[in-house]
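Possible regression after last week's pipeline update?

I re-ran a chain I had predicted before the update to compare outputs. Posting the input and the new output here so someone can diff against the archived version. Not blocking, just want to make sure nothing changed silently.
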Amino acid sequence: MDGWDAYGMVLVALSSMYLLPQTIKMWKTKQVRDISFFFLAFTATLHLMWLVYNVHLMLLGTEGVVPYFLNNLFRCIVAAITILIYYKLARLAIYKR
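New output (post-update):
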């Protein structure tokens, strides 16, 4: 692994976490009113599509795809968790009215 590979792995790790601060804030404040569900659904769909494409490239034997696969897998998981939290908190907000 050369310096550029290590740099790429750091970028993959950091970019995988872009949704975590918002997810944690939603969980702590128990509020979702300022978050667009369309954004969350679009993000989850986009990363799922990238994941399918990464699997396709891996099946073709393309080298260097695994970091991108792991990145998109993690992003799909975080997006799914965020959507579940959003849905749960939005339902709680409706019942409190």
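Follow-up from reviewer: compared with the archived run. Residues 4 and 94 are 49 Å apart (CA to CA). Marking as no regression found.
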